[in-house]
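INFO worker-7 received task bundle
INFO bundle size: 2
INFO processing item 0
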Amino acid sequence: MQQSGRPPRCAVDARQRQLALSPDGQTMAMVMRPDTAAPQSLYTRRVNNVVFQKLGGTEDASQPFFSPDGRYVAFVANNVAHGGGIYQTYAVSRDGQRILNIQYAGDGTAAGRAGALSHAA
């Protein structure tokens, strides 16, 4: 990722919802691909900053959303790093230090050790 202070050049799939804003309105989470050879991953940044930080373990992420308290960013993924085979929902702490597999209820909510999360499909 570019650290020059300029926004990174990246590819974003406009067919999916790839951007989320934290409940306090201060942090954005965005799924993007920094170059065509890299897998799409989840990045975060403060709204008053131009530098994105990649959250490790989020390869093949899509459809990000924040927990109600804003401590976690949840996302959907289907890849080998997370077991592959079927799409699963994960939550990662905003600092990228913890990643949790959470259960999606199919009714727009998910739950796990991160607590209850809500998602509008």
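INFO item 0 finished
INFO processing item 1
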Amino acid sequence: MQFVAPDSYTITLAIALFLGMVVGGMGRLPGSIVGSALIIFAPNIAESVSKGLSGAVSAAKLGIVGLSQSIALDLARYNVRSNCIAPFAWSRLATTIPSDSEADAKRIERMKLAAADKIAPLVAFLASDSAAEVTNQIFGVRKNEIFLFSKPRPVRSLHRSEGWTPETITTELLPAFRSSFYGLDRSADIFSWDPI
């Protein structure tokens, strides 16, 4: 086995997930002592999934989503709630998005309309007693819109009593599943309207 020195990929991934685990682990203490606790992660999956950022950034942010779900499930007995907010907000990271065309420039100008202060009301709600039943969710905020994101769940199923071979997957499963495959969508493909 060969030693591989840490690079920016491993460092980015490690920092994000390590900090998430520390925060998540700390949620158990107040939950067990005071009877409840709240953790809100803001992994900005909206950027990582739809803007084609580096693999390390995307992996770290989506890793936080998985970690938040694990915390919600594992610490529910201590009344610890864990949710994620995926903010569509103009940030320092967004300033690195290349603008190679007039369409890109217009898209970036639209993105600037989504200010970070628009996220505060959702954070305040999730931190309130009114959200006592809300856990294990992924919300998105884009200007005055709030979204509830889906999680990985089965989309299609196909059974073959004889079992599968690479050939039957090619001839039977692929045609049946193809219409349910996700494309290489970016924000502009999914959100075709301006932030409102």
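INFO item 1 finished
INFO post-check item 1: The longest helix spans residues 8-34.
INFO post-check item 1: The chain is about 45% helix and 10% strand.
INFO worker-7 idle
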